């Protein structure tokens, strides 16, 4: 009589999975296709990455240590692509999980045919690895599904903003022509100011949506930081002068940064303009320092300060502080995404009654100058 339990080495199970890989894939594809029912699903869509996963799974079984971590790692390399495919072909989460349950059954069946299932430890190892892959797959699926929804929303918003621009441009041209004919007219100036504000709002909404789905093309070049600062603070200087506050720049540096000039200029401008807008007395300071992470642009203001809750949400689109000053709440959100697109960061600190400190970290040029 055969013993009920025979010790099996992890290498034996790993070799069995490698030998039976084609059979496992073929049976799995047919099983998943049956589960899909009447859905029109191409086999190539179902197959994506499963061969590579079985190779990685065999390696994880052979190693035998840190199963949860290795099972997740084995799947993580292909999880994103797999999840995007599942979202595109219309699978829901239950179908995604069902795929892995079927895969587990077919793998165990293939190993059983090689007479290696009498060691429960090795079967538990396979189960644990598949379960960790399920967790990674579900997380990737949710991320991919949310991304696709955001992408569709962004495309709708882009269409609407494009349609808004056309009549707005016509109105602005007509108002400019009226201004030339009427010389000084407060009504025409009001129309032009309102039009410029509306155009700015449209551009901000479109930029926010494009950053949200990663549709911004970052064109990096080497540029002097002082040139970016001069452009970024030009409008804020005029506003500060009108308000009777000082805008002080401490940027005695020849540092060259490797950035997209338009995106970074816009980011710095948003932060400085915001500081000047919310400072009603005293001064706003822009200070440049260097650290191991890169070039840091600090902006200090004398506003009323922000609470901990406001600091937590200040970089989210359409979130604003408690001030009643006009604004959309998009400027800081766009600025942070522009800086992060360069691998940098935008942070803030504050306390009520003590102003705010914002700082942007930008990458230095790697070329000698």
Q: Mind telling me the CATH class of the largest domain?
A: Alpha Beta
Estimate percent helicity. 55-70%
Coarse morphology = elongated
Name the poorly predicted regions: none
- Give me the CATH architecture of the largest domain, please: 2-Layer Sandwich
Order of H and E elements: HHHHHHHHEHHEEHEEHHEE
Strands ordered across the widest β-sheet: 2-4-5-7-6
Provide structural commentary:
The strands form 2 sheets. Strands 2-4-5-7-6 form a 5-stranded mixed sheet. A two-stranded antiparallel ribbon has the order 1-3. It is elongated and about 90 Å long. Strand 4 and strand 5 form a beta hairpin. The protein is built from 13 helices and 7 strands.
SSE layout:
Layout: H1 10-19, H2 21-36, H3 43-47, H4 50-63, H5 67-89, H6 93-113, H7 120-182, H8 186-212, E1 221-224, H9 225-232, H10 234-243, E2 246-250, E3 256-259, H11 261-278, E4 283-291, E5 294-300, H12 308-313, H13 331-340, E6 345-350, E7 356-362
Parallel strand pairs: 2-4
Antiparallel strand pairs: 1-3, 4-5, 5-7, 6-7
Helix pairs in contact: 1-4, 2-6, 4-5, 5-7, 6-7, 7-8, 8-13, 9-11, 10-11, 11-13
What's the quick description here?
It is built from 13 helices and 7 strands.
Main attributes of the structure:
alpha+beta, Globin-like, Helix Hairpins, Heat Shock Protein 90, five-stranded mixed β-sheet, two-stranded antiparallel ribbon
């Amino acid at each position: 009589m055969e013993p009920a339990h025979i010790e099996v080495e992890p290498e034996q199970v790993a070799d069995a999975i490698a030998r039976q890989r084609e059979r496992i894939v073929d049976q799995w594809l047919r099983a998943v296709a049956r589960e899909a029912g009447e859905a029109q699903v191409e086999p190539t869509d179902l197959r994506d990455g499963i061969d590579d996963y079985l190779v990685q799974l065999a390696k994880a079984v052979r190693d035998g240590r840190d199963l949860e971590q290795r099972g997740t790692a084995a799947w993580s390399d292909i999880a994103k692509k797999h999840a995007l495919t599942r979202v595109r072909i219309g699978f829901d989460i239950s179908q995604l999980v069902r795929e892995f349950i079927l895969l587990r059954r077919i793998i165990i069946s293939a190993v059983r045919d090689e007479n290696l299932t009498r060691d429960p430890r090795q079967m538990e190892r396979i189960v644990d690895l598949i379960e960790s892959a399920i967790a990674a797959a579900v997380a990737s699926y949710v991320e991919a599904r949310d991304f696709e929804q955001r992408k569709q929303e962004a495309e709708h918003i882009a269409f609407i903003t494009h349609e808004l621009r056309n009549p707005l441009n016509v109105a602005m041209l007509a108002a400019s022509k009226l201004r030339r004919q009427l010389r000084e007219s407060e009504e025409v100036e009001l129309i032009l100011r309102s039009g410029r504000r509306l155009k700015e709002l449209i551009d901000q909404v479109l930029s926010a949506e494009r950053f949200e789905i990663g549709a911004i093309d970052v064109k990096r070049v080497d540029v002097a930081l002082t040139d970016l600062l001069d452009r970024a603070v030009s409008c804020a200087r005029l506003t500060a002068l009108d308000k009777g506050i000082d805008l002080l720049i401490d940027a005695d540096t020849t540092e060259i940064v490797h950035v997209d000039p338009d995106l970074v200029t816009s980011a710095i401008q948003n932060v400085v303009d915001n500081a000047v807008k919310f400072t009603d007395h005293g001064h706003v300071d822009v200070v440049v320092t260097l650290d191991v992470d890169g070039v840091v642009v600090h902006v200090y203001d004398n506003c009323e300060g922000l609470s901990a809750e406001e600091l937590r949400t200040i970089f989210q689109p359409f979130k604003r502080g408690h001030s009643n000053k006009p604004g959309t709440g998009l400027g800081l959100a766009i600025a942070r995404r522009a800086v992060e697109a360069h691998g940098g960061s935008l942070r803030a600190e504050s306390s009520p009654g003590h102003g705010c400190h914002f700082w942007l970290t930008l990458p230095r040029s790697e070329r000698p100058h």
